User: Fold this.
Amino acid sequence: MKSTLRRVLPGLLVIGTLGSFVHITERSSAQTAPHVQLKPVKYGELAEAVRAQKGKVLVVDVWADFCIPCKHEFPNLVRLHKKYADQGLTCFSVSVDPPDDAKARSRALSFLEKQQATFANFFLEEHESVWQNRWDMNGPPCIFVFDRQGKRAGKFQVDPTAKTPFTYADVEKLVQELLERKP
Assistant:
């Protein structure tokens, strides 16, 4: 019995240790997983959040769950945030899905979680007539870039008359220029 125990015991200790390690690792990664939120706002609250970023370069990506090009390009916003956040860039995403669609907010949040969009995410509780008029746009995708003084430095939107659509490379080029300027 003692010899069998001596042969089996080291293996059990290794298995037990590995099991504990896996459990601790799973728990640690769950604790450090980025937390993604989607805050419902009215237009005025969103405008105030934008104004509060004065002193930083700000990229605001206006998107919707129903917009395939928006969702295709969204990982570029996440990448931009990761690449330049420590240099003074702030990123916002604004979902303009219909506020009266009961499932729109949960679909948007699910998408944001999959993208690991850990920056500020807003769900605009306004109908399209409000944001289309205020932002002079006909729909998403649309990206606004603000300089450190809080002034709009760029607007990128789909233009059916343009020969080539904007890309996130265009957005990043402007962001780089604005970050290089002295505050």
